[in-house]
Fold this protein.
Amino acid sequence: MQRYAYASRLNSFACRPELFWPGRNARPTVLDLIDRASSAKGLSAIDVNYPDQAAGASTKDLRARLGERGLELNGFAMRYGGDPAFKSGAFTNGDPAVRTRAIELTKRGVDAVRAAGGDMLTLWLGQDGVDHPFQADFGRLWDLEIDGIRQIAGHDPGCQIAIEYKPNEPRAISLLSDVSSTLLAIAEAGSPNLGVTLDFAHVLQADESPALAAALISKKSKLLGLHLNDGYGKRDDGLMVGAVHTVQTIELLRQLKQDDFKGPIYFDTFPDTAGLDPVAECEANIATVETMLDAIDRLPEAELAAALARQDAVTAHRIVQAAIFGGGR
């Protein structure tokens, strides 16, 4: 039995269309992608990007297709790339009219996800930041960001608003670049329906410890979303779970178990980068997480906790390696 519900990036299932729709030339629709996602064993939920993907089907049709395929809507993820004006900022745009457009678009995203049967909107404010020194008044930029977040959170207090941080890309320097700035923004905005989406590859880019970031979120806010993937820390690689940072992924999963995280676990991976079969890749991610959870179950927690209390890295390392690979210590 799976310990968590698992969700995935719907865009992934557009990769290698010939494997699922042989001989078809038409580009798959959002509803087609839901059909394909439902063929991945163990997958129980998907996210939809707003407004681009959501524009491909009415909320009624989206909700109906998910029900027919036995999937749930994990939530909507805001994307601002469709409007060129947002390249210089969404909530922090220097043009008040453009800023208002971004905020109103996001409010419509809240309304749409609720109409589709979801209760979470993820904000990745990647356009809010700078590229050059002396480009902006950082104090003013911060105030605009907090005001925008507060407006979105207040639009529908029953909808959870999850902030996904990333240190850079597309901007050279993102305003919400790490766990500390994100927690500070949430505290300042002061809305109870705010929380964090933790993306493993983004954490690596920010030179953070995934487990430490999760622990801080648990202490100061709430973890609304978890994006598992992997990478080399230089960019958002979107590799399969555990492909590079196996031990750190296990450490994160153990931290989430301690913090009583309920899930779902969302795979923000990019099989399209290497032309992988997205269904097989998704199933491999689920199997990897379940195997890691098996290793966590094998950990002698009292012994490990004692080693951690002493900050005895050698003993802890041997305990963890034995749980992963088996054998004596």
Summary: Strands lie at 6-9, 45-50, 72-78, 120-123, 129-130, 160-164, 173-174, 194-199, 223-228, 265-267. The first helix runs from residue 30 to 37. The chain is about 45% helix and 15% strand. The radius of gyration is 20 Å.
